[in-house]
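Q: Got a minute? One more chain.
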Amino acid sequence: FYSPFQQYSLTKALNIVYAKEYNRRYHKDGVYAVSVHPGAIKSGLQRYNQWMRLLNDYVPDIKFAIKTRSQGAATQIRCAAMTDAEFMANGGQYFENCNAATIWRPDVNNDELGGLFWNLCTSIIEQNGLQI
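A: Always. Here it is, folded:
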């Protein structure tokens, strides 16, 4: 059973896993990574999520939990505007609502999964004739 929203959620989780692994591998070289989640933004993507679509159909002016595009961009801008020291201190963290957030999924914090996913990504890149 394919669910677009389930796939979207999986890609968000893997973004966190990848950023944590990237940070783990390269922080000693002075290269850091964070992952960010803008939140639910009224953008048109809702048409692919049946629950958001229903909410939008029946409560089109919904204000709670739905951000404007500017509000959604705030977390990315916050991370991009960090000082070097702050970015280094927060390497590998997951950000939402402009702050480092707690990750409740234990699998996302699994270092073994990070290594496996890194190796899978590397393999796919190399199979397509690219170098890392």
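A: The chain has five helices and three strands.
Q: Perfect, thanks.
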